Amino acid sequence: MIITRIKLNNNISQKGVISILLATLILSIISVIAFGISALMLQQIKMSRQMGDSTVAFYAAESGAERCLYEARKGSDVCNFTDIPLDFDSNAKYTVTYNGSNKIESTGEFRNTTRKVELNW
Questions:
Q1: Which stretches does DSSP call E strand in 1-121?
Q2: Which of 119, 112, 107 is nearest to 58 (CA)?
Q3: Which of these, 73, 83, 72, lies nearest to 106 by C-alpha position?
Q4: What's the predicted TM-score (pTM) here?
Q5: Average pLDDT, 10 consecutive residues per value, the chain (121 residues)
Q6: What is the C-alpha separation between 114 and 109, in angstroms, rounded?
Q7: pLDDT score, position 11
Q8: How far lies 86's CA from each of 18, 33, 60, 70, 112, in Å?
Q9: What is the rounded distance in angstroms from the CA atom of residue 48 to the CA atom of residue 66?
Q10: DSSP code at position 98
Q11: Which residues lie closer than 8 Å to 61 by C-beta, 6 or more apart?
């Protein structure tokens, strides 16, 4: 009788250890999947932020090109603007080069992102 009880208790304790190991394995797998998904999401968030910065830089370059085109149509032979801020709130700025030819080059910058616009006529 005593030997049977010892074997029965031994089987119960082995089932408990297996249950704990299985639960730990499942939680580890779920954690690895969650960390992988969060890493992908952080990359997507960073990329979408850079796309927004690119748009602001492009509009800054376009603004500078339009301003220089306006000056050229008024009769100005040269309009070179360097690091002109768009407004007081943003750090966007543009640089324009025009030397009387039929080509205006404007570069917009915003948070380490640069976009260039060229007008030809």
A1: 81-85, 93-97, 103-110, 113-120
A2: 107
A3: 83
A4: 0.63
A5: 54 75 95 96 89 91 92 82 77 88 91 92 80
A6: 5
A7: 59
A8: 66, 44, 7, 16, 16
A9: 27
A10: -
A11: 94, 106, 107, 108, 115, 116, 117
- Predicted local distance difference test score (pLDDT) of residue 72: 86
Per-residue tokens: 24:
């730990």
Q: Helix, strand, or coil here: 118?
A: strand
Contact 78, 98 (CB under 8 A): yes
Rounded to whole angstroms, what are the CA distances from 31 to 7, 35, 42, 84? 36, 6, 16, 49
Q: Which two tokens stand for residue 29?
A: 């797998």
